[in-house]
C-alpha cells in the first residue's frame, strides 16, 4: 500500500479500527459527473512550494447551502492554508449511493483528471449512505481509496468521516463512521472523525447547520467557515517531509 511522501502527525487525526464487509460492483458508488463540481482558481504559480490539495466528496464538499459553492468548506480550507486546491463534490453521492448526477464515489474517481498532482487528498463522507445496506460499505470504501492511491501515487490520503446534519446522530451515521474508522486503521490511512471529535454539538448546531427547507440541513455560510477551520487545523499538521526510510 502506498504510504505517500507525506505522513500525518499522530495528533492531527483520529484513527479508528474496524472490520470490513463485502461490496457490490466495480463502480462502488462513485459519481462520474464532472459538470457539477467547481474547480478552484488556478492562479497559483506553477512552481509553488505549497502543497496541492484535492477534496473529494458529497454535497458538503460541493458547497451546498453556502451563498456560493466556492464559499464551501473545501474551498475555504484550501484558501486558509494557501494550498492550490481542486474540489470535486456531487450532491447526494456516497460510497454506495448514486448522487443527483448518477455517480457514486467509485465511478467518480475514474473521472478525475489523471494529470492532477495532489500532495494531499481528502475524501469526505458519506452521510448519504445511511439509507443503504452498509454490509457493502467497507469493500466500497476500500476500492475507492485504492483507486485514488493508484491514480495519484504520490499523494497522502486523508479520510474525513461523516458529520451530523441532525441531532441526535442517527445510528446509521455512527455505524458509517465506525466502519470507515476501522477500515482506515487496517489500511493505515489517516482518518478524521467529526463525530468522535465532536465538531457539531448541541452548543453550536444552530450556527453550523441551516435547517431551512431550501438548505435541507447542510452547513450555512458560517458552518462552512467553521468546518474549514477545523479541517485546516488537521491538514496543517501534515508533515510534508519526504519519507527517507
From TrEMBL:
The keyword Phosphoprotein does not apply. Residues 55-225 form the SGNH hydrolase-type esterase domain. It comes from Microbacterium faecale. It comes from the Bacteria. Keywords: Signal. This is SGNH hydrolase-type esterase domain-containing protein. The keyword Signal applies. CDD domains: SGNH_hydrolase. Pfam families: Lipase_GDSL_2 (PF13472). Residues 1-21 form the signal peptide.
Amino acid at each position: 500500500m502506498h504510504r505517500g511522501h507525506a505522513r500525518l502527525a499522530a495528533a492531527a487525526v483520529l484513527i479508528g479500527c474496524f472490520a470490513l464487509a463485502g461490496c457490490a460492483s466495480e463502480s462502488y458508488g462513485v459519481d462520474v459527473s464532472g459538470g457539477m463540481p467547481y474547480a478552484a482558481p488556478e492562479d497559483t504559480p506553477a512552481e509553488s512550494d505549497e502543497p496541492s490539495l484535492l477534496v473529494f466528496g458529497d454535497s458538503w464538499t460541493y458547497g451546498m447551502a453556502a451563498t456560493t459553492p466556492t464559499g464551501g468548506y473545501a474551498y475555504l480550507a484550501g484558501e486558509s492554508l494557501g494550498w492550490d486546491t481542486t474540489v470535486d463534490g456531487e450532491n447526494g453521492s456516497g460510497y454506495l449511493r448514486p448522487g443527483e448526477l448518477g455517480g457514486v464515489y467509485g465511478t467518480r474517481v475514474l473521472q478525475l483528471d489523471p494529470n492532477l498532482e495532489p500532495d494531499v487528498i481528502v475524501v469526505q463522507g458519506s452521510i448519504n449512505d445511511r439509507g443503504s445496506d452498509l454490509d457493502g460499505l467497507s469493500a466500497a470504501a476500500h476500492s475507492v481509496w485504492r483507486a485514488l492511491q493508484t491514480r495519484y501515487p504520490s499523494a497522502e490520503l486523508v479520510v474525513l468521516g461523516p458529520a451530523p446534519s441532525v441531532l441526535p446522530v442517527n445510528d446509521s451515521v455512527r455505524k458509517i463512521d465506525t466502519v470507515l474508522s476501522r477500515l482506515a486503521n487496517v489500511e493505515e490511512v489517516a482518518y478524521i472523525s467529526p463525530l468522535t471529535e465532536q465538531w457539531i454539538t448541541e452548543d453550536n448546531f444552530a450556527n453550523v447547520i441551516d435547517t431551512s427547507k431550501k438548505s435541507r440541513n447542510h452547513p450555512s455560510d458560517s458552518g462552512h467557515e467553521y468546518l474549514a477551520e477545523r479541517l485546516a487545523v488537521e491538514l496543517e499538521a501534515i508533515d510534508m517531509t519526504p519519507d527517507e526510510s
